[in-house]
Specification:
The chain has about 400 residues and is an alpha/beta fold. It folds into 2 domains: about 150 residues, Aspartate Aminotransferase, domain 1 (Alpha-Beta Complex), CATH 3.90.1150.10; about 230 residues, Aspartate Aminotransferase, domain 2 (3-Layer(aba) Sandwich), CATH 3.40.640. Helices cover about 45% and strands about 15% of the residues. It has a 5-stranded mixed sheet with strand order 2-9-8-7-6. A 4-stranded antiparallel sheet has the order 10-11-14-13. The protein has a 3-stranded mixed sheet with strand order 3-4-5. A hairpin with a 7-residue loop joins strand 10 and strand 11. Helix 6 runs parallel beside helix 7 and helix 6 crosses helix 11. The longest helix has 26 residues.
């Protein structure tokens, strides 16, 4: 109904494959590795009652009112202090705009940079939410494959050279360099250096999506791209994974002139992000509660990651491989090429286990034999049981489809 009234942009929109899949896994008896949900045990509910009371007593006039588009100053200042303390990055409030979740930040950046037909570079596989946000602005996607060390920068360099011959320079390169969604891999320090070098050579912006930066369980920290190239990197951070996703508080950080453009774009989107939520997180941070809370989250998720990896080792057929993330919420499973994980999905649901199919994270039909698993949400016991069920489904599928 009314289809002829829709804009071309709306007609091209498609429902999120992950969101549609999640509708099928609402039953409590299905063990779901499909969502990217933080575990409710990590929500700081016990401290929030007192924090909320303080905000309502001391800041009610501003916390319950409209706010500035840039975001509550005290929250931006707390983020600046933490950036200096944790990654030795000197930024001021003018380098930060608060957004209604990172998803809004991605949409605003798409609106800022992309004209129809512009080239942009993404990872393959890439975060589905980013691809969806950018796609509505009609770019030409240039997808660069990943390996266990992140985006293959040699392939990127090759593609950039080929594009330049056609007088095409990408507007930006979008990466999730640390504990990537969906693959769980981390871009090496040397590849980050090369990416920065290429950004200068070809004059593009780097969009660094960093929702999992603070969730490292093993290995050594690697400097974020915004530390290496603060003059040409826009970094997206969020409190959804380290505080609570229901608050929908995130930020975009970068050069002040670019951040100002984000602010102007946001003014026509929602005027401002909810001040009440911002004041609560600012008060929480000012009390020194966030960093100890993140350490507790890391302990919980590290255990869950280890349980999943151990269960995969013990149960999966030898033809199946998977990534071994040092942090984040996800790992990536590859079955033999003749296995179609999308076709297999309903058979997995019959066995009461769910995942996200690999094709959801590509724009060109690749990933038919791949899948993403989340380890943060389910209980320890259900993680092990779920992997056993999934391994049984894969064994049956390999036997059924093997040439």
């Amino acid at each position: 109904m009314f289809e002829e009234l829709f804009s071309k942009r709306t007609q091209a929109m498609k429902a999120s494959e992950i969101r549609e899949l999640l509708k099928l896994v609402t039953s409590d008896d299905i063990i779901s590795f499909a969502g990217g949900l933080p575990n409710p045990k990590t929500f700081p509910a016990s401290e929030l009652a007192d924090v909320c009371t303080t905000v309502l007593q001391e800041h009610q006039a501003k916390a319950l009112q409209y706010g500035t588009t840039e975001g509550v100053l005290s929250l931006r200042e707390e983020i600046c202090k933490r950036m200096k303390r944790t990654i030795d990055l000197d930024v001021g409030p003018d380098n930060i705009v608060i957004t209604s979740g990172s998803q809004q930040g991605l949409d605003l950046l798409g609106k800022m940079f992309i004209d129809p037909g512009d080239a942009i570079v993404v990872e393959a596989p890439s975060y589905l939410g980013a691809v969806g946000a950018f796609k509505s602005y009609e770019p030409n996607f240039v997808a660069i494959e990943l390996d266990d060390d992140g985006m293959k920068i040699d392939l990127l360099e090759e593609q950039l050279a080929n594009l330049k011959k056609r007088f095409v320079i990408p507007k930006f390169v979008y990466v999730v360099p640390t504990f990537q969604n969906p693959a769980g891999v981390t871009m090496t320090d040397s590849r980050r250096d090369k990416l920065v070098e290429l950004s200068h050579e070809y004059d593009f912006i780097i969009i660094e999506d960093s929702p999992y930066e603070n969730l490292r369980y093993a290995g050594k920290d690697i400097k974020p791209l915004i530390v290496k190239a603060p003059d040409r990197t826009l970094n997206l951070g969020t409190f959804s994974k380290t505080f609570a996703p229901g608050f929908r508080i995130a930020w975009t950080m970068g050069p002040a002139d670019l951040v100002r453009k984000v602010v102007i774009s946001k003014q026509s989107a929602d005027l401002c992000t909810a001040p009440f939520s911002q004041f609560i997180i600012a008060e929480y941070m000012s009390r020194g509660l966030l960093d100890p809370h993140i350490e507790e989250i890391k302990k919980l998720y590290s255990t869950k990651r280890d349980i999943m990896l151990k269960a995969l080792d013990e149960n999966m057929p030898e033809e199946v491989s998977w990534t071994k993330p040092e942090g984040g919420l996800f790992l990536w499973v590859r079955a033999p090429s003749y296995v179609d994980t999308k076709d297999m999905f309903l058979r997995a649901i019959e066995k009461k286990v769910a995942y996200v199919t690999g094709t959801a994270f590509y724009g060109d039909g690749r990933g038919t034999n791949e899948m993403r698993l989340n380890f943060s949400f389910e209980t320890d016991e259900r993680i092990h049981t779920g992997v056993e069920r999934l391994a049984e489904v894969l064994r049956d599928e390999i036997k059924r489809q093997s040439p």
